[in-house]
Design a protein that fits this description.
homodimer, 420 residues, BirA Bifunctional Protein, domain 2, 5-stranded mixed β-barrel, 5-stranded mixed beta sheet, 12 helices, 23 strands
Chain lengths: 420, 420
């Protein structure tokens, strides 16, 4: 993409009302726009990152047999009353509204109820199970406070998968498969090393759940981490009994702050009983379906990446989720026609080679262009200037390491082919 | 995809409360689920169709220089008060809700206001224009009546593009480019021949607008069509003066019903003035930006296709938007092991060849499988049975023409390669 055409501009200063680093950097770089507290628009660069993340999540969910659908945000009171979760006293983040003819509707903050009801129309026999169904869809949560940028938004994209199994054992097998898929996802988006499967409370549904916590000082959760065994325990269940059950050695646990980037929940028969999702087993017995739910917020993943990977000049995107792979910067002064010609040619070669490239073809000062490149944080910066032309080479800089090399065109393409 | 794993089942009868043909067939085929009147979930088959349609729209919008973003559904009162459109008296389809701390919020039914305000933060000079910005995003409209299935939903996906130009002339050039792109889109999704650019009222914003009307008996609009010149006039502006202005000959116009599958609107400076979107022109004059808006509802396009292309056995999808290209059906009786082996092998070959295939590997009767294939409406049905094995061939049937051929494996792949 030609930067000249990109409608967003970078900003030197973040808005004063924005306290979270992720929002500050994302707004400065032109990735997001704050519509109101906790409500963000994803601008072209930000949407590209978000799509990279959802693309990785989708691949991993498909691999474990997930089938994708898209449920509505508008929710009917009747369905949620069956589970007892329509009440604001039970779910305190409902947004509710009213149809023209007077009926109340809600905006989905999660989708156990409508999906359980829907699956009930298609499942009747043990032959119809198990089923793994997911969506990547916008949730609405009327959070009292929203000061963490895109880490905790009032409107946000969520991948929510629900499993429908015949037995506790069958459920448990998938639960572990999905946990493994989650670790692959966090690995692929660049959060692998810092993300721990974390034993946590099951909330109202079950005895326990598993969170995926990424170590980060601004995280809302306190967790106790066994770095060697790569597991952690959330403070909310940090008791001697829990540690015993998990065979964890208290002396090896380190207290840390974590951002909950994903969670997986056994739901048991809580919703299948409430909404009548039952099946006939092989012996003809009428049995409630065993369920689980599995969530990841792609926006929160994106915010976590920004919280962790930046320096005083801007964001440092991992290659897998960067909006572009290469930031081609033409530093052409008044006499820079030759520079522009070479840069144009190189841009065409990069695009033809399938290398996603943001090409800074703007008429702007070298200082402004280089500062913007650092702020936007694309992994590879390639500079064409009178200086590089004098050396018959291209300057390639790695945003993460800061390492700079002078390479010929062929070497550049070789480097971009091998690195990933 | 293996049909054995697909969680949805077909239904012989449509729900009795569903009067629209599109909803009846889509529900029976397992494409959509009705959450409440005017609110539909897109099930795996339906989501595949929807994604095909949005994919085509996205390609065409990118081709004319559109840049994609994603605006929030939640809307702040302050922004909309500036244009005077917060009031329910002005926009009568608002869904509104309340933040926990008491502020009112709306759910976006269109996005001129927030996008104009946002663009104002990034545009200041004539060098920053023109800009073409779009999204494929969920709109909410609190329709009083919702009986047309997915043709008029209370929650629906919309592609809305907004143009920001320096002058009326510059705007007009893009307006025509976008009109041409719209015709390409309707052509590509299979509605080309039946879709007419239709002169219509500009509503509150301008003197006129252009609708894209697809001829269909259940359409809500009455239009007058010049079939030879391929243009039409909406009844709302069907006056002698309009016909004169458009050089249309009344005697050649035929009255038809149409579904408005797209519309494009000159907005002039209505929103740029209200929201302060101005730029300095080349002479340093402070000037309001000239805007336009361009909408297509992918769900409505999908519903229109179903209204038009079906028979008494089910849907007939155009190839470009079909959920799969091939429906491979194994008709294996008790002794059908050989059939299943051949079908499995063929399924692998089809998938490896990149041909999207739904493979009916269920244990069900031949009658049930063939009826389901007709209802779901995938363009090519390939049957493997004891009968086809006896002939050392495969039976391939075109859903649209009904033509059946017996082909060898190589011939089948040749046919699938050439047809499109």
């Amino acid at each position: 993409m030609r930067q000249r055409h990109l409608f967003t501009k970078t900003r030197k200063e973040a808005p004063t009302d924005e306290v979270a680093k992720n929002a500050q950097l994302l707004i400065r770089g032109g990735f997001v726009h704050k519509e109101m507290a906790g409500v963000y628009d994803y601008l072209p660069l930000g949407l590209r990152v978000l799509n990279k993340i959802t693309g990785i999540i989708r691949e991993e969910m498909d691999k474990i047999g997930g089938q994708e659908l898209l449920l509505s945000a508008l929710q009917s009171k009747e369905v949620w009353e069956k589970s007892g979760r329509w009440s604001d006293g039970v779910i305190d983040v409902w947004f509710k509204s009213t149809l023209t003819h007077g009926a109340e509707v809600g905006l989905g903050n999660t989708h156990e109820e409508p999906l359980t009801a829907l699956v009930g129309e298609h499942v009747s026999s043990y032959k119809d199970l198990p089923r793994y169904i997911y969506q990547i869809q916008t949730k609405f949560r009327n959070e009292l406070r929203a000061k963490s940028g895109i880490l905790r938004a009032r409107e946000f994209l969520m991948k929510d998968l629900y499993s429908f199994s015949r037995t506790e054992e069958e459920f448990r097998l998938f639960y572990e498969e999905c946990a493994a898929a989650y670790l692959r996802i966090f690995e692929r988006v660049g959060l692998g090393e810092l993300t721990y499967r974390t034993f946590a409370s099951g909330g109202p549904f079950s005895d326990y759940s598993d969170e995926f916590q990424t170590l980060c000082d601004v995280g809302e959760d306190t967790i106790y981490v066994d770095e060697e065994r790569r597991v952690a325990v959330n403070k909310e269940v940090y008791t001697d009994k829990t540690l015993d059950d998990l065979h964890l050695d208290k002396t090896r646990l380190v207290e840390k702050r974590g951002i909950e980037v994903g969670n997986i929940f056994p739901l048991g028969t809580r919703f299948s009983e409430a909404l009548g999702l039952r099946y006939r087993d092989a012996d003809g017995n009428d049995t409630p379906v065993v369920m689980g739910s599995y969530g990841i917020g792609p926006g929160r993943v994106m915010g976590t990446i920004v919280e962790l990977y930046s320096d005083n000049r801007g964001i440092i995107w991992p290659e897998s989720v960067a909006p572009f792979r290469v930031h081609l910067v033409a530093l052409a002064g008044e006499e820079g026609k030759g520079v522009r010609t070479e840069a144009e040619k190189l841009y065409t070669l990069l695009v033809d080679a399938g290398i996603e490239t943001l090409y800074d073809d703007r008429e702007a000062s070298p200082g402004e262009k280089l500062a913007d490149a650092d702020l936007i944080g694309i992994p590879w910066r390639v500079v064409v200037s009178e200086k590089t032309q004098a050396q018959h080479a291209l300057e390639i800089k790695n945003r993460k390491t800061g390492a700079t090399e002078m390479l010929g065109e062929k070497e550049l393409f070789d480097e971009l082919k091998t690195e990933n």
